[in-house]
Design a protein that fits this description.
single chain; alpha+beta; outer membrane lipoprotein receptor (LolB), chain A; twelve-stranded mixed beta sheet
Amino acid sequence: MAVSCFCQETGLLGRIKENYSGNEPLSASFDLHIAWKIREKEETKHGSIVLAPRDRFRIELGSGLWVSDGTTLWQYDKTIGQAVIKSLSSLDNSMLPSHAITKYCSEYPLAPKAGSGANEVLEWKADTQAAKAAEVVYVSITADKKTGAVRRLVVVDKNGNESAYAFGHVVFGRAAPPQTFIFEVPKGARVLDQR
């Protein structure tokens, strides 16, 4: 068992953790499909993400925008013209995009499942005992076997809500311009400064 765990860490799971550790820049486009079990509603949004070391990021998803310079987080909703400003240190680290994928790789014992072609699937499903205490009951990561680029992430929370991310145009190591992580509040926007 120790040998298989070691091989897995140095194999695909190790490559994923290295790629998504937050130590190197990355960018990707993605589609997010959420199936709300209780509300019996589904929605799909298209977005993009740019990450850089020191918890700098820019995420655009539908009408929402999240920008961090590593110290401050700006959340802007274009639909209602509202910007919320928070200190990044007030957030739980697991909520930061630079920690999201590595959290699933570290906190859940993902096991290889059948993959197709260049991709492999790593999966974890809560047993009855684990489901009572876990935040999520199912995690599936589909990644490129060679590069460790995540192609698909599926998470089911304890309420049965499913979030499925499909990633495309994943680029590692290309630094974004510094202004990517600066947010200028649009003129006329309502501002809620929670710092």
